[in-house]
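Quick illustration, no need to memorize.
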Amino acid sequence: MATVLSLQLDKRSVMSDFERVDCLLLGRFQPFHLGHLEVVRKIAKECDELIIGIGSAQISHTFENPFTAGERHLMISRALREEGIKDYFLVPIVDINQYGIWVSHVRSMVPPFQRVYTNNPLTKRLFSEAGYEVSASPLFNRSHYSGTEIRKRMVAGDDWRRFVPRAVAEVIDSIDGVKRIRELMAQGEWDAGD
């Protein structure tokens, strides 16, 4: 009898070593750039499955949020496929602007997860208060890998392609995204935020 009990205890301790860790990465990805790709690579190594929440999914056609949720979905999925990254879900998440229920809103939209990656202070607080493990997203060369910086380069006619995966540049070209951003800038849709 003691041997059976001992085996059961050993089995439980082994099972706890193999618990899944599914992670949620939240971002606007306007556009998805090489910094985002590095974050995904790093997080994907730490997680069984990665859920990428495409934030502010209802907003598009402004300088700060020029691309639709569908366009961003296409950018991310093609870039990750090109990199050979698998085991992820892409989920558009609409802003509800009610912080008291935002975590439950996100939970209702995505598969179950145990860890959240974000650098947004409010998002960190909300998920921490809800009992989630929250980690900062690693930052990679933030002065270049910034959606705001890339959009500014597009407006100015500067080289922006070297800051995004090839697949993302192809999607932007296919929708005439640079022209859209320039027109939004000319119409006064400028917002310095990222």
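Residues 155 and 182 are 5 Å apart (CA to CA).
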